[in-house]
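TEACHING EXERCISE
Course module: macromolecular assemblies
Task: Read the component lines below, then compare them to the predicted structure of the full complex.
Student: A.B.
Group: 4
Components provided:
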Amino acid sequence: MSTATVVEEKSGARSGQPPVADGAVTVTVKILRFNPEVDSEPRWESFGVPALPTDRVLNLLHYVKWYLDGTLTFRRSCAHGICGSDAMQINGVNRLACKVLVKDLMSKGDKQTTITVAPIKGLPVNKDLLVDMEPFMEAFKAVKPFLITYGNEPTRERIQSAADRERFDDTTKCILCACCTTSCPVFWNEGSYFGPAAIVNAHRFIFDSRDEGAEERLDILNDAEGVWRCRTTFNCTDACPRGIQVTKAIQEVKRALLFRR
Amino acid sequence: MALALDKPRAPRRPAARRSNFELVSWLFMRISGLALIVLVLGHLLIMNILDGGVHRINFAFVAGRWSSPFWQFWDLSMLWLAEIHGGNGLRTVINDYARKDSTRFWLKIMLYVSMVLILALGSYVIFTFDATIPAN
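Instructor-supplied answer key:
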């Protein structure tokens, strides 16, 4: 009994497991875990989790946290692909855990399905799947992602044509989940490359007809750590859960730098 | 007059250097790449395929080619474009992959020294080639 109590305390999970739904199969969820107070480096841990094909990977993580091991740490807020909290590497590619369905990860035939989940790469891991987003946000802030205007405030709203709005429509979709930036091999390097997400958000203002700070932002992105470090590997476009043409946006910034004067 | 921007949102990273070096080097890679397609494929065609190919290459053949300013210019531009194109490519590879600042520094020093040596030696040979010295 004392052993059970110890396990209970360690896991911190809810007692008792919910009934397994009809049609559920047990899949192995292999998670790259790291506890800074115990581990010197990350280690893989596997959990057997009953899953329906219509479950999202986030449901599996919830199951692990709620019923198997309450110490599992990850971010999630809205759980519906809007807030961008739960970006992680699922089966080796950056995805939002709340947007990936188990049926798309099922192995063919009778083979046991294994789903690997690791934290996004290139940012310091705080614990398990939770990374320090500060370097990412710093690059985002550095491109001045807010409206810059000069002169007197207009007395009415700033009017924009539908065509001018369309110019930067794609890059307004960014939710700052960091899927693109942490899939970029140049960002993995020690340097301080701004990363795709910061360039996407600069693009959103550079090509906004109401904004007057394009020159400043282009100068920032012309820096040695700016757009010229892009190697056009398209990892960012593949990773974006919002379907933004990230590499295209970066190329458009390069073109603006080449032909602006 | 420029509107003062609020300080709290100012970036912590150093202000952008107003240098166009990365832009120029990016552009150079594209332009030199296009030029090298013509220069190198032309060179390979002449040296290996046309008119007997490699079998006719000897001292006299080289001497004959380099007596013409056109081929001197062709080989010189091929040498400089290829060396700087390749060197700049390696520079970006070193920037991307070197983990430590000291590694990056020494790799780049080695790269630059080798580039200067090869460019100097190659240019020296093209400009001072003497067709009258004995073949062997």
